[in-house]
Amino acid sequence: MGKVTARIPANMAEMIAQTDVIRDEIKRTKARERNALFEDGVRQQLLKEGKIKIHPEVLKRLTTNSNG
């Protein structure tokens, strides 16, 4: 087994900066997830009420054209 040969103290200023970056990224991720859930709920409700209609063939055509 190896031995501890040196001890390097933590850089607290760097740790605080990284904590802020990580926290902000988590906030952005959660916001995107909430938005996606909201949009899906609205879409499902509008479909159920018959206010919108999704045409799979049109969706397929649009996604095929936009990718290539």
Describe this structure in words.
This protein has 68 residues and is mainly alpha-helical. The protein has a domain at 24-67. Helices cover 74% and strands 0% of the residues. It has helices at 12-49, 56-67. The longest helix is centred in the middle third of the chain and has 38 residues, at 12-49. The radius of gyration is 24 Å and the shape is elongated. The termini are far apart. The relative contact order is 0.05. The model has no long low-confidence stretch (mean pLDDT 91).
Helix/strand order: HH
Radius of gyration: 24 Å
Q: Calculate the terminal CA-CA distance, rounded to whole Å.
A: 55 Å
- How confident overall, as mean pLDDT? 91
Topology:
Layout: H1 12-49, H2 56-67
Task: Describe the structure in brief.
The chain is mainly α and 68 residues long. Helices cover 74% and strands 0% of the residues.
Question: What keywords describe this structure?
Answer:
single chain; 68 residues; mainly alpha; 2 helices; elongated
